[in-house]
Amino acid sequence: MPATTWTPRLRRARGPLYAAIADAIAADITRGKLHAGERLPTHRELATVVGASIGTITRAYAEAERRGLVRSQVGSGTFVRDLTDPASYSPMLDRSRIDLGPTAAPIVAGDLGHCALSAALAGLAARADLGALAGYQAHGGSEAQRAAGARWLATTGVEAEDDEITVCSGAQHATVLALSALASPAGVLVEELTHPGVLAAAGWLRLPTHPVALDQHGLVPDALARACRDSGARVLCCTPTHHNPTTAVMPKERRLALVAVCREYGVSIVEDGALAPLVADSPPPLARLAPERTWHITSLSKATIPALRVGFLRAPAAARRALETAAAATVWSGSPLLAEIAVQWIADGTAIALRDARRAEAAARQQLAAARLGHWHYRAHPTAYFLWLDIPPQRRALELVEQAHARDLLLGPSHLFAARPGNAPNAIRVSLAAARSRAELDRGLTILAELLDSPAWSALQ
Protein backbone atom coordinates (compact mmCIF):
# COMPACT_ATOMS: atom_id res chain seq x y z
CA MET A 1 0.00 0.00 0.00
CA PRO A 2 1.48 3.38 -0.97
CA ALA A 3 2.02 5.88 1.81
CA THR A 4 -0.52 8.66 2.30
CA THR A 5 0.56 12.20 1.50
CA TRP A 6 -0.53 13.26 4.98
CA THR A 7 0.88 16.51 6.31
CA PRO A 8 0.36 17.28 10.02
CA ARG A 9 -1.30 20.51 11.14
CA LEU A 10 0.99 21.51 13.98
CA ARG A 11 -0.34 23.86 16.60
CA ARG A 12 1.91 26.28 18.39
CA ALA A 13 2.68 24.77 21.76
CA ARG A 14 5.33 24.84 24.45
CA GLY A 15 5.70 21.05 24.37
CA PRO A 16 8.16 19.06 22.24
CA LEU A 17 7.65 18.71 18.50
CA TYR A 18 7.34 14.92 18.63
CA ALA A 19 4.31 15.24 20.95
CA ALA A 20 2.73 17.84 18.66
CA ILE A 21 3.06 15.45 15.72
CA ALA A 22 1.43 12.65 17.72
CA ASP A 23 -1.36 15.07 18.67
CA ALA A 24 -1.85 15.89 14.98
CA ILE A 25 -2.17 12.19 14.15
CA ALA A 26 -4.84 11.84 16.84
CA ALA A 27 -6.71 14.92 15.62
CA ASP A 28 -6.76 13.80 11.99
CA ILE A 29 -7.96 10.31 12.91
CA THR A 30 -10.80 11.97 14.79
CA ARG A 31 -11.60 14.28 11.84
CA GLY A 32 -11.58 11.37 9.41
CA LYS A 33 -8.55 12.64 7.48
CA LEU A 34 -6.58 9.54 8.41
CA HIS A 35 -8.28 6.17 7.97
CA ALA A 36 -7.70 2.71 9.39
CA GLY A 37 -5.05 0.82 7.45
CA GLU A 38 -3.45 3.87 5.80
CA ARG A 39 0.33 3.92 5.76
CA LEU A 40 1.86 7.11 7.09
CA PRO A 41 4.79 8.81 5.34
CA THR A 42 8.20 7.33 5.98
CA HIS A 43 10.33 8.85 8.71
CA ARG A 44 12.50 10.59 6.13
CA GLU A 45 9.52 11.92 4.12
CA LEU A 46 7.78 13.38 7.16
CA ALA A 47 11.04 14.82 8.50
CA THR A 48 11.44 16.74 5.24
CA VAL A 49 7.84 18.00 5.31
CA VAL A 50 7.92 19.35 8.87
CA GLY A 51 11.60 20.37 8.90
CA ALA A 52 12.58 18.05 11.73
CA SER A 53 15.20 15.39 12.32
CA ILE A 54 14.52 11.75 11.57
CA GLY A 55 15.01 11.09 15.29
CA THR A 56 12.13 13.45 16.12
CA ILE A 57 9.84 11.64 13.68
CA THR A 58 10.89 8.29 15.10
CA ARG A 59 9.95 9.50 18.57
CA ALA A 60 6.66 10.97 17.29
CA TYR A 61 5.62 7.68 15.69
CA ALA A 62 6.65 5.82 18.83
CA GLU A 63 4.51 8.15 20.93
CA ALA A 64 1.54 7.65 18.57
CA GLU A 65 2.01 3.90 18.88
CA ARG A 66 2.08 4.20 22.69
CA ARG A 67 -1.29 5.96 22.49
CA GLY A 68 -2.71 3.13 20.41
CA LEU A 69 -3.13 5.26 17.27
CA VAL A 70 -0.74 3.48 14.90
CA ARG A 71 1.08 0.19 14.54
CA SER A 72 4.59 -0.21 13.16
CA GLN A 73 5.55 -3.18 11.01
CA VAL A 74 9.24 -3.74 10.47
CA GLY A 75 10.07 -3.40 6.80
CA SER A 76 6.58 -2.21 5.87
CA GLY A 77 6.01 1.10 7.61
CA THR A 78 3.69 2.74 10.14
CA PHE A 79 -0.06 2.19 9.74
CA VAL A 80 -3.15 3.80 11.25
CA ARG A 81 -4.92 1.39 13.57
CA ASP A 82 -8.60 0.60 13.39
CA LEU A 83 -9.66 2.11 16.69
CA THR A 84 -13.25 0.90 16.38
CA ASP A 85 -12.66 -2.84 16.04
CA PRO A 86 -13.04 -4.77 19.30
CA ALA A 87 -12.27 -8.04 17.53
CA SER A 88 -8.58 -7.20 17.31
CA TYR A 89 -8.47 -7.08 21.10
CA SER A 90 -10.91 -9.82 22.12
CA PRO A 91 -11.08 -12.86 19.81
CA MET A 92 -13.98 -14.53 21.63
CA LEU A 93 -13.48 -17.92 20.04
CA ASP A 94 -10.02 -18.31 21.56
CA ARG A 95 -10.85 -19.99 24.86
CA SER A 96 -7.18 -20.51 25.75
CA ARG A 97 -7.13 -16.91 26.97
CA ILE A 98 -8.71 -15.36 30.02
CA ASP A 99 -11.26 -12.87 28.72
CA LEU A 100 -11.56 -9.58 30.60
CA GLY A 101 -12.01 -7.80 27.30
CA PRO A 102 -14.48 -5.45 25.60
CA THR A 103 -16.84 -7.94 23.98
CA ALA A 104 -17.33 -10.16 27.01
CA ALA A 105 -20.63 -12.00 27.37
CA PRO A 106 -22.59 -11.46 30.59
CA ILE A 107 -22.07 -13.65 33.62
CA VAL A 108 -23.54 -17.13 33.60
CA ALA A 109 -24.86 -17.41 37.16
CA GLY A 110 -23.97 -21.03 37.91
CA ASP A 111 -26.21 -23.56 36.16
CA LEU A 112 -29.45 -21.69 36.89
CA GLY A 113 -29.67 -20.05 33.47
CA HIS A 114 -28.85 -23.25 31.61
CA CYS A 115 -31.38 -25.25 33.62
CA ALA A 116 -34.07 -22.63 33.06
CA LEU A 117 -33.42 -22.60 29.32
CA SER A 118 -33.45 -26.40 29.14
CA ALA A 119 -36.79 -26.53 30.94
CA ALA A 120 -38.24 -23.80 28.72
CA LEU A 121 -37.20 -25.58 25.53
CA ALA A 122 -38.58 -28.88 26.78
CA GLY A 123 -41.86 -27.18 27.60
CA LEU A 124 -42.09 -25.63 24.16
CA ALA A 125 -41.34 -28.96 22.48
CA ALA A 126 -44.29 -30.56 24.27
CA ARG A 127 -46.81 -27.88 23.31
CA ALA A 128 -49.59 -28.72 20.91
CA ASP A 129 -49.41 -25.24 19.36
CA LEU A 130 -45.68 -25.34 18.62
CA GLY A 131 -46.39 -24.79 14.93
CA ALA A 132 -47.78 -21.35 15.73
CA LEU A 133 -44.35 -20.40 17.08
CA ALA A 134 -42.51 -21.62 13.99
CA GLY A 135 -43.60 -18.88 11.59
CA TYR A 136 -43.44 -15.12 11.36
CA GLN A 137 -45.00 -12.73 13.82
CA ALA A 138 -46.09 -9.09 13.78
CA HIS A 139 -43.17 -6.74 13.09
CA GLY A 140 -43.44 -5.02 16.47
CA GLY A 141 -44.42 -8.09 18.48
CA SER A 142 -47.70 -9.57 19.63
CA GLU A 143 -50.04 -8.11 22.24
CA ALA A 144 -48.87 -10.64 24.82
CA GLN A 145 -45.23 -9.82 24.12
CA ARG A 146 -45.80 -6.08 24.41
CA ALA A 147 -47.64 -6.60 27.70
CA ALA A 148 -44.71 -8.66 28.99
CA GLY A 149 -42.36 -5.89 27.89
CA ALA A 150 -44.32 -3.32 29.88
CA ARG A 151 -44.17 -5.59 32.92
CA TRP A 152 -40.39 -6.04 32.57
CA LEU A 153 -39.86 -2.30 32.16
CA ALA A 154 -41.79 -1.71 35.37
CA THR A 155 -39.10 -3.62 37.30
CA THR A 156 -36.71 -0.72 36.62
CA GLY A 157 -39.23 2.04 37.22
CA VAL A 158 -40.36 2.65 33.63
CA GLU A 159 -44.12 3.12 33.32
CA ALA A 160 -45.44 2.14 29.89
CA GLU A 161 -48.69 1.22 28.18
CA ASP A 162 -48.72 -1.86 26.00
CA ASP A 163 -49.17 0.20 22.82
CA GLU A 164 -45.97 2.12 23.64
CA ILE A 165 -43.87 -1.06 23.39
CA THR A 166 -42.06 -2.39 20.33
CA VAL A 167 -40.54 -5.87 20.64
CA CYS A 168 -37.00 -6.00 19.24
CA SER A 169 -34.24 -8.54 18.68
CA GLY A 170 -32.17 -7.25 21.57
CA ALA A 171 -31.07 -3.83 22.78
CA GLN A 172 -28.76 -3.23 19.81
CA HIS A 173 -31.64 -3.72 17.40
CA ALA A 174 -33.73 -1.32 19.49
CA THR A 175 -30.94 1.28 19.27
CA VAL A 176 -30.93 1.07 15.48
CA LEU A 177 -34.72 1.39 15.36
CA ALA A 178 -34.75 4.43 17.63
CA LEU A 179 -32.00 6.26 15.76
CA SER A 180 -33.49 5.47 12.37
CA ALA A 181 -36.82 6.92 13.49
CA LEU A 182 -35.51 9.97 15.32
CA ALA A 183 -32.22 11.22 13.93
CA SER A 184 -31.69 13.88 11.29
CA PRO A 185 -28.58 14.59 9.19
CA ALA A 186 -27.40 16.83 12.06
CA GLY A 187 -26.50 13.61 13.87
CA VAL A 188 -26.63 12.27 17.39
CA LEU A 189 -25.41 13.58 20.73
CA VAL A 190 -23.52 10.84 22.58
CA GLU A 191 -21.54 10.49 25.76
CA GLU A 192 -17.84 11.02 25.13
CA LEU A 193 -17.40 7.48 26.45
CA THR A 194 -20.18 5.16 25.39
CA HIS A 195 -21.05 1.61 24.46
CA PRO A 196 -19.51 0.69 21.06
CA GLY A 197 -22.94 -0.45 19.87
CA VAL A 198 -24.22 3.13 19.89
CA LEU A 199 -21.30 4.28 17.76
CA ALA A 200 -21.75 1.30 15.43
CA ALA A 201 -25.46 2.05 14.98
CA ALA A 202 -24.82 5.72 14.25
CA GLY A 203 -22.05 4.83 11.81
CA TRP A 204 -24.22 2.30 10.00
CA LEU A 205 -26.95 4.93 9.65
CA ARG A 206 -24.34 7.47 8.49
CA LEU A 207 -25.14 9.82 11.35
CA PRO A 208 -22.40 12.06 12.72
CA THR A 209 -21.84 11.78 16.46
CA HIS A 210 -21.24 14.74 18.77
CA PRO A 211 -19.54 13.80 22.06
CA VAL A 212 -20.70 15.35 25.33
CA ALA A 213 -18.43 15.56 28.36
CA LEU A 214 -18.81 13.25 31.35
CA ASP A 215 -17.84 13.51 34.99
CA GLN A 216 -18.16 11.06 37.86
CA HIS A 217 -21.95 11.53 37.85
CA GLY A 218 -22.48 11.06 34.10
CA LEU A 219 -23.35 13.60 31.39
CA VAL A 220 -22.59 17.21 32.26
CA PRO A 221 -25.71 19.36 31.59
CA ASP A 222 -23.76 22.52 30.66
CA ALA A 223 -21.70 20.51 28.17
CA LEU A 224 -24.90 19.07 26.71
CA ALA A 225 -26.33 22.57 26.23
CA ARG A 226 -23.18 23.67 24.41
CA ALA A 227 -23.27 20.59 22.19
CA CYS A 228 -26.93 21.25 21.35
CA ARG A 229 -26.10 24.82 20.32
CA ASP A 230 -22.96 23.92 18.37
CA SER A 231 -24.16 20.79 16.55
CA GLY A 232 -27.85 21.36 15.89
CA ALA A 233 -28.43 17.68 16.76
CA ARG A 234 -31.70 16.97 18.52
CA VAL A 235 -31.27 13.34 19.59
CA LEU A 236 -29.31 12.24 22.66
CA CYS A 237 -28.20 8.67 23.38
CA CYS A 238 -27.21 8.12 27.01
CA THR A 239 -27.01 5.54 29.79
CA PRO A 240 -27.82 7.16 33.13
CA THR A 241 -27.98 3.88 35.10
CA HIS A 242 -24.98 1.52 35.06
CA HIS A 243 -23.14 3.57 32.46
CA ASN A 244 -21.04 1.58 30.05
CA PRO A 245 -18.03 1.73 30.41
CA THR A 246 -17.63 3.72 33.67
CA THR A 247 -20.47 2.08 35.71
CA ALA A 248 -21.68 5.52 36.91
CA VAL A 249 -25.25 5.88 38.20
CA MET A 250 -26.49 9.42 37.58
CA PRO A 251 -28.06 11.09 40.64
CA LYS A 252 -31.66 12.29 40.44
CA GLU A 253 -30.68 15.97 40.56
CA ARG A 254 -28.42 15.52 37.53
CA ARG A 255 -31.17 13.67 35.68
CA LEU A 256 -33.57 16.55 36.28
CA ALA A 257 -30.98 19.03 34.99
CA LEU A 258 -30.39 16.86 31.93
CA VAL A 259 -34.12 16.70 31.19
CA ALA A 260 -34.37 20.49 31.54
CA VAL A 261 -31.69 21.00 28.88
CA CYS A 262 -33.39 18.53 26.53
CA ARG A 263 -36.72 20.31 26.94
CA GLU A 264 -35.12 23.69 26.33
CA TYR A 265 -33.54 22.56 23.05
CA GLY A 266 -36.23 20.14 21.89
CA VAL A 267 -34.00 17.08 22.21
CA SER A 268 -35.38 13.52 22.11
CA ILE A 269 -33.68 11.09 24.49
CA VAL A 270 -32.73 7.49 23.71
CA GLU A 271 -32.16 6.00 27.17
CA ASP A 272 -30.20 2.74 27.27
CA GLY A 273 -31.50 0.70 30.19
CA ALA A 274 -30.12 -2.70 29.18
CA LEU A 275 -27.87 -2.90 32.25
CA ALA A 276 -30.27 -1.10 34.60
CA PRO A 277 -31.80 -4.34 35.99
CA LEU A 278 -28.46 -5.02 37.72
CA VAL A 279 -28.80 -1.88 39.86
CA ALA A 280 -31.23 -2.07 42.77
CA ASP A 281 -32.96 1.11 43.99
CA SER A 282 -31.60 3.35 41.24
CA PRO A 283 -32.92 6.90 40.73
CA PRO A 284 -35.99 7.27 38.48
CA PRO A 285 -35.27 6.63 34.80
CA LEU A 286 -35.44 9.49 32.32
CA ALA A 287 -38.49 7.77 30.83
CA ARG A 288 -40.35 8.55 34.04
CA LEU A 289 -39.03 12.11 34.37
CA ALA A 290 -39.66 13.02 30.72
CA PRO A 291 -41.91 10.38 29.13
CA GLU A 292 -42.96 12.75 26.31
CA ARG A 293 -39.44 12.75 24.80
CA THR A 294 -37.73 9.59 26.08
CA TRP A 295 -37.36 6.36 24.12
CA HIS A 296 -36.27 3.75 26.65
CA ILE A 297 -34.43 0.55 25.69
CA THR A 298 -34.23 -2.62 27.74
CA SER A 299 -33.56 -6.28 27.05
CA LEU A 300 -33.38 -9.68 28.71
CA SER A 301 -29.99 -10.88 27.45
CA LYS A 302 -27.93 -8.95 30.04
CA ALA A 303 -30.21 -9.83 32.97
CA THR A 304 -30.97 -13.48 32.16
CA ILE A 305 -28.93 -15.33 29.49
CA PRO A 306 -27.13 -13.91 26.42
CA ALA A 307 -29.02 -16.23 24.05
CA LEU A 308 -32.36 -14.63 24.90
CA ARG A 309 -32.09 -11.88 22.28
CA VAL A 310 -35.37 -10.17 23.10
CA GLY A 311 -35.52 -6.44 23.77
CA PHE A 312 -38.24 -3.88 24.36
CA LEU A 313 -38.34 -0.29 23.17
CA ARG A 314 -40.70 2.07 24.97
CA ALA A 315 -41.57 5.10 22.85
CA PRO A 316 -44.52 7.51 22.61
CA ALA A 317 -47.49 5.66 21.09
CA ALA A 318 -47.47 7.98 18.07
CA ALA A 319 -44.14 6.46 17.01
CA ARG A 320 -45.42 2.89 16.85
CA ARG A 321 -46.14 2.79 13.11
CA ALA A 322 -42.70 4.22 12.25
CA LEU A 323 -41.03 1.70 14.54
CA GLU A 324 -42.93 -1.23 13.04
CA THR A 325 -41.84 -0.08 9.59
CA ALA A 326 -38.22 0.10 10.78
CA ALA A 327 -38.53 -3.35 12.38
CA ALA A 328 -39.83 -4.77 9.11
CA ALA A 329 -36.91 -3.22 7.25
CA THR A 330 -34.28 -4.65 9.60
CA VAL A 331 -35.37 -8.10 10.85
CA TRP A 332 -38.91 -8.38 9.43
CA SER A 333 -39.91 -10.62 12.32
CA GLY A 334 -38.30 -11.43 15.63
CA SER A 335 -38.10 -15.03 16.77
CA PRO A 336 -41.49 -16.16 18.15
CA LEU A 337 -39.76 -18.97 20.04
CA LEU A 338 -37.41 -16.63 21.91
CA ALA A 339 -40.20 -14.13 22.51
CA GLU A 340 -42.39 -16.86 23.98
CA ILE A 341 -39.64 -17.84 26.43
CA ALA A 342 -39.33 -14.17 27.38
CA VAL A 343 -43.08 -13.91 28.00
CA GLN A 344 -43.05 -17.06 30.16
CA TRP A 345 -40.03 -16.02 32.20
CA ILE A 346 -41.40 -12.56 32.89
CA ALA A 347 -44.76 -14.05 33.92
CA ASP A 348 -43.51 -16.87 36.16
CA GLY A 349 -40.66 -14.98 37.86
CA THR A 350 -37.77 -16.81 36.17
CA ALA A 351 -36.43 -13.57 34.69
CA ILE A 352 -36.37 -11.92 38.13
CA ALA A 353 -34.71 -14.98 39.70
CA LEU A 354 -31.97 -14.97 37.04
CA ARG A 355 -31.52 -11.22 37.45
CA ASP A 356 -31.06 -11.62 41.19
CA ALA A 357 -28.57 -14.46 40.71
CA ARG A 358 -26.58 -12.30 38.30
CA ARG A 359 -26.57 -9.39 40.72
CA ALA A 360 -25.19 -11.68 43.41
CA GLU A 361 -22.52 -13.13 41.14
CA ALA A 362 -21.52 -9.67 39.91
CA ALA A 363 -21.22 -8.49 43.53
CA ALA A 364 -18.97 -11.44 44.38
CA ARG A 365 -16.75 -10.73 41.39
CA GLN A 366 -16.53 -7.03 42.27
CA GLN A 367 -15.33 -8.02 45.73
CA LEU A 368 -12.70 -10.24 44.14
CA ALA A 369 -11.57 -7.34 41.96
CA ALA A 370 -11.34 -5.06 45.00
CA ALA A 371 -9.08 -7.58 46.71
CA ARG A 372 -6.71 -7.75 43.73
CA LEU A 373 -6.84 -4.16 42.45
CA GLY A 374 -7.87 -2.22 45.53
CA HIS A 375 -4.80 0.05 45.68
CA TRP A 376 -5.29 1.16 42.06
CA HIS A 377 -7.71 3.93 41.12
CA TYR A 378 -10.78 2.53 39.41
CA ARG A 379 -14.52 3.15 39.21
CA ALA A 380 -17.14 0.47 39.73
CA HIS A 381 -20.64 -0.13 40.96
CA PRO A 382 -21.06 -2.98 43.50
CA THR A 383 -23.17 -5.05 41.08
CA ALA A 384 -21.61 -4.03 37.76
CA TYR A 385 -20.29 -6.49 35.20
CA PHE A 386 -17.07 -4.51 34.74
CA LEU A 387 -14.89 -1.72 36.12
CA TRP A 388 -13.12 1.32 34.68
CA LEU A 389 -9.43 1.44 35.52
CA ASP A 390 -7.31 4.58 35.16
CA ILE A 391 -3.74 3.88 34.03
CA PRO A 392 -0.85 5.74 35.70
CA PRO A 393 0.33 8.65 33.52
CA GLN A 394 3.80 7.18 33.00
CA ARG A 395 2.25 4.25 31.14
CA ARG A 396 -0.17 3.87 28.25
CA ALA A 397 -3.34 1.81 28.19
CA LEU A 398 -2.52 0.07 24.94
CA GLU A 399 0.91 -0.83 26.25
CA LEU A 400 -0.78 -2.62 29.13
CA VAL A 401 -3.30 -4.27 26.78
CA GLU A 402 -0.52 -5.66 24.61
CA GLN A 403 1.54 -6.85 27.57
CA ALA A 404 -1.56 -8.61 28.89
CA HIS A 405 -2.22 -10.16 25.49
CA ALA A 406 1.28 -11.65 25.55
CA ARG A 407 0.25 -13.42 28.77
CA ASP A 408 -3.05 -14.67 27.30
CA LEU A 409 -5.15 -12.05 29.07
CA LEU A 410 -7.63 -9.94 27.10
CA LEU A 411 -8.46 -6.37 28.19
CA GLY A 412 -10.62 -3.56 26.78
CA PRO A 413 -8.70 -0.40 25.76
CA SER A 414 -10.53 2.88 26.25
CA HIS A 415 -10.54 3.96 22.61
CA LEU A 416 -13.10 1.24 21.83
CA PHE A 417 -15.58 3.21 23.94
CA ALA A 418 -14.57 6.73 22.90
CA ALA A 419 -16.73 8.80 20.57
CA ARG A 420 -13.45 10.35 19.38
CA PRO A 421 -10.96 7.46 19.58
CA GLY A 422 -7.94 9.70 19.05
CA ASN A 423 -8.78 11.50 22.29
CA ALA A 424 -9.50 8.46 24.44
CA PRO A 425 -8.49 8.64 28.10
CA ASN A 426 -5.60 6.61 29.43
CA ALA A 427 -7.77 3.85 30.87
CA ILE A 428 -9.13 0.37 30.28
CA ARG A 429 -12.43 -1.37 30.91
CA VAL A 430 -11.96 -4.62 32.79
CA SER A 431 -14.80 -7.08 32.31
CA LEU A 432 -15.54 -9.35 35.26
CA ALA A 433 -18.25 -11.27 33.44
CA ALA A 434 -16.77 -13.51 30.77
CA ALA A 435 -14.36 -15.49 32.93
CA ARG A 436 -15.81 -18.97 33.19
CA SER A 437 -15.39 -19.12 36.94
CA ARG A 438 -14.31 -16.98 39.86
CA ALA A 439 -11.07 -18.96 39.97
CA GLU A 440 -10.34 -18.04 36.34
CA LEU A 441 -11.24 -14.42 37.04
CA ASP A 442 -8.89 -14.43 40.03
CA ARG A 443 -6.05 -15.68 37.80
CA GLY A 444 -6.76 -12.94 35.27
CA LEU A 445 -6.91 -10.21 37.91
CA THR A 446 -3.68 -11.50 39.43
CA ILE A 447 -1.93 -11.18 36.07
CA LEU A 448 -3.34 -7.68 35.64
CA ALA A 449 -2.15 -6.65 39.11
CA GLU A 450 1.32 -8.01 38.35
CA LEU A 451 1.49 -6.02 35.12
CA LEU A 452 0.33 -2.85 36.86
CA ASP A 453 2.95 -3.31 39.58
CA SER A 454 5.69 -4.14 37.08
CA PRO A 455 8.53 -1.59 36.67
CA ALA A 456 8.79 -2.50 32.98
CA TRP A 457 7.99 0.96 31.65
CA SER A 458 8.16 1.89 28.02
CA ALA A 459 11.30 3.57 26.75
CA LEU A 460 9.38 6.82 26.35
CA GLN A 461 8.37 7.41 29.97
Automatic annotation (TrEMBL):
SMART domains per record: HTH_GNTR
CDD domains linked: AAT_like, WHTH_GntR
Stored PROSITE patterns: HTH_GNTR
Pfam families attached to this UniProt entry: Aminotran_1_2, GntR
UniProt keyword annotations, A-Z: Aminotransferase, DNA-binding, Pyridoxal phosphate, Transcription, Transcription regulation, Transferase
GO molecular function annotations of the record: transaminase activity
InterPro entries: Aminotransferase_I/II_large (IPR004839), HTH_trans_reg/aminotransferase (IPR051446), PyrdxlP-dep_Trfase (IPR015424), PyrdxlP-dep_Trfase_major (IPR015421), Tscrpt_reg_HTH_GntR (IPR000524), WH-like_DNA-bd_sf (IPR036388), WH_DNA-bd_sf (IPR036390)
Residue ranges occupied by any HTH gntR-type domain in the UniProt entry: 15-83
Top-level lineage group: Bacteria
UniProt cross-references to PANTHER family, sorted A to Z: HTH-TYPE TRANSCRIPTIONAL REGULATORY PROTEIN GABR
Family stated for the protein in its record: In the C-terminal section; belongs to the class-I pyridoxal-phosphate-dependent aminotransferase family.
Protein name listed in UniProt: PLP-dependent aminotransferase family protein
